[in-house]
Amino acid sequence: MLKHEFSRHETSQSSNLIPVDVLIDILTRVPAKSIARFRCVSKFWASSILHRRDFTDLFLTMSLTRPRVFFPIKSDGKLFLYSTHQPHNPDDDDDDDSSLVATPYHTSFPDYFPCDIYSPVCGLVLLQGCERKVRVVCNPATGEFLTLPKVLLKEKTKLITAQKKKEKIARMYLGYDPMGKQFKVLCMTRTFSRYEVRDNTHQVLTLESEKKRVWRTIECKFHFEESYRISGDICINGVLYFAAALTLGLSSMIVCFDIGSEKFSFINTNNDMERGDCMYSFTLFNYKGRLGIYHEEDSFYQIGRIVFWVLEDAENHKWSKHIYKLCPLEWNLIRYSRFVGMAGTGEFVWSSLYKDSPNSFYLSFYSLESETFTKVNIQGFDQLKQHHRFISTYLDYVENVKWLM
């Protein structure tokens, strides 16, 4: 349901008397990259159509039906953003191997190089500059980026030694509230200690162009720090999930932050998950609208298994465990690959790690229903330098023409 009912009589001289609702219907069907160029057509297009909330909402709704695969690439000290059409049912292809061509987003970043790239949320991406000094929110589709205001850091005094320590930013997360249609950034700050979890503070920033962006402090009952056993952060249906630990070095838990209400809750992990002793041996992912945790088993000890858990009951901390056995040929296809996540169409996806030639990057799709693999080659990275190149992969990326400024 659109918030604004378009009038058939709302026209402009520069639009040759074409009704605005007809123009909007046309524009929602063109590529997002073209929308950024259309801003230069006329002031009428820029202010009366492209910046309208109802247009950007409708475009986002249309984008949800045509998801893409998003590739942030670090190459030769620079950041490049690419994407390609996400295959609907890759295992339906008659060929053993299929190919897709990734195209670049023409986004010009400042002089600093964003070292950390966080998971895209509803078309926007949170980037963190070198040494975590600068953080920006970027919209690849429009080419815009917004530098976030500085976080207010306080000094805390240790009671025993009376020593003052200044807070530092531990982590930032980007989330989206589909009900309120708002993007928010969650920032966790704390004083660092080698032996214990220090008190941390949480602040929230709402990304609204019509209002002044100010960090607001919110309450949380517990103090925790980032877990190094479970990687990734993911926003599902307005709830941001990430892993943390209440006690340094002990078991992990899942932090749930409701973007709309700005309230925290916590979910205990399954006992089986505590047996993994490797850093980042587990990965959060979206399993058909529910939280999933994928286990990156040690390929030396475990041969030919896909293991993951799905959250069944958050209130009672209940998980279901799933295991799929693979034949040696299938296992070798993903053994040295990186788990990416689960596509909206139900396939597990891995990306290749090693690129011997510019065209050797590929994705492996595994259908849980048919229990078959499909390899999809990704082309289009020829102009990037082969050495010192790192490719990240994100599924179900939706292009958003929301303007940040």
UniProtKB/TrEMBL annotation:
Q: Which residues form the F-box domain?
A: 18-58
Q: Which InterPro entries match?
A: F-box-assoc_dom_typ3 (IPR013187), F-box-assoc_interact_dom (IPR017451), F-box-like_dom_sf (IPR036047), F-box_dom (IPR001810)
Which domain of life does this protein belong to?
Eukaryota
Q: Which NCBIfam families match?
A: F_box_assoc_1
Name of the protein in its database record: F-box domain-containing protein
What is the protein's species of origin?
Brassica campestris
